[in-house]
Amino acid sequence: MTAETTGVRLDCDGPVATVTLCRPDVLNAQTPAMWRAMRDFSRDLPGDVRVVVVRGEGRAFSAGLDLSVAGATGPGSFAELSRLPEQECADLIAEFQAGFTWLHRPDVISVAAVQGHAIGAGFQLALACDLRVLAEDARLSMAEVTLGLVPDLAGTKRLVELVGYSRALEICATGRRLDATEADRLGLASIVVPPAELDGAVRDLTAGLLAGNRDAVVEIKALLAGAASRTHAEQQRAEREAQTRRLRDLAGRGE
Prior knowledge:
Elements: H1 3-6, E1 8-13, E2 16-21, H2 32-44, E3 51-56, H3 67-70, H4 78-83, H5 86-101, E4 109-114, E5 117-119, H6 121-128, E6 131-135, E7 139-141, H7 156-163, H8 165-174, E8 177-179, H9 180-186, E9 191-193, H10 198-211, H11 214-227, H12 232-250
Parallel strand pairs: 2-3, 3-4, 4-6, 5-7, 6-9
Antiparallel strand pairs: 1-2, 7-8
């Protein structure tokens, strides 16, 4: 399937892969076809890719779920999902989640380049990435509650990890919009730049990520990603084990 039919494109340039939402006429509103295509990108990713950049064409990152699709009667619509047995519905949503969760992969660092709206599924796609570079015009909202729904594209845990339970509850239960300044203050943004500087900031960040030893970066990501679920002693043990592997590899003794 092509980007014209799925609404999303994967481009690879050496160690950098770029996922582009390419429906600018509808502010890159998302559909189940896009989620399935993004899930398949994980299988298509060349082994030398180290950084995945996620971006949207046009003036918005993503305005969220395409309500014209969700409100119809075809695949992925609310009507179809509501008629499925509970387990089948849950299994289908799991397929959709896989379009987001592959960005957690331990062997790559994912970067969201966010301009304009990042609403609902758009906000969750940005949260799926390890790092978020926000333009000053970015507006984020977990708007599912306004449709009587819950965020279900793997965004809730990431949000709690970044801003804490109380703030995450307030953001999700109200569906209000956060501007780039507040997102930065809450820890949702890695960098905030003027809109004209977004592409350059992403390039600079990508270059910095690629400058380090790949295996060291992979170990660092694993250490930090698992830190919250470990005790201090467990984290210190993980550090020792990771450093031992690095020392052996650097000395040419890795197995």
